């Protein structure tokens, strides 16, 4: 009996909405992280420092690393990651922010039971 071949690759989609109640703390942590990064070339460091200082969303994106989500999971190696952040208007009571729905507005049966909150 043969089993169908399956992919070993899994895409995990995560969408987070966070409230930044202390922009200075986020910016300071991002600046400290940049200062601690000894491998970062000075030109890139200056650009990154300017970006995180001007935009709290950019500072937060600098601090959030997808590798941290799976780096300690046994048997898993991160192959590719991309992420971004942006300032948004957020209304938790709006149907737009229903975590049970994907971007198309239809429920995905594979996602049932995976909402945390």
Describe this structure in words.
With 117 residues, the chain is mainly α. The protein has one domain (23-108). The protein has helices at residues 23-36, 42-54, 56-63, 66-70. Helix 1 packs antiparallel against helix 2 (42-54), helix 1 (23-36) packs across helix 3 and helix 2 (42-54) crosses helix 3. The longest helix has 14 residues, at 23-36. Residues 105-117 have low confidence and may be disordered.
Any key phrases for this structure?
single chain; 117 residues; mainly alpha; 4 helices; flat; disordered C terminus
Q: What is the typical, i.e. mean, pLDDT?
A: 83
**Number of contiguous helices:** 4
Beta-strand portion reads: under 5%
Question: Low-confidence spans: pLDDT under 50, at least 5 residues?
Answer: 105-117
Shape: flat
SSE string? HHHH
Main sheet properties: none
Structural class: mainly alpha
Helix percentage: 25-40%
Count all strands and give the number: 0
Question: What's the domain count?
Answer: 1
First and last CA, distance? 42 Å
Give me the Rg, rounded: 18 Å
């Amino acid at each position: 009996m043969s089993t169908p071949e399956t992919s070993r690759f899994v895409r995990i989609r995560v969408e987070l909405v966070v409230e930044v109640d202390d922009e200075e703390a986020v910016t300071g942590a991002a600046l400290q992280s940049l200062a601690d990064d000894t491998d970062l070339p000075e030109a890139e460091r200056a650009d990154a420092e300017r970006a995180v200082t001007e935009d709290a969303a950019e500072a937060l994106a600098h601090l959030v690393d997808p590798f941290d989500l799976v780096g300690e999971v046994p048997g898993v190696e991160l192959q590719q990651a991309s992420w971004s952040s942006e300032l948004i208007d957020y209304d938790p009571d709006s149907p737009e922010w229903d975590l049970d729905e994907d971007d198309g507005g239809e429920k995905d049966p594979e996602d049932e039971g995976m909402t945390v909150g």
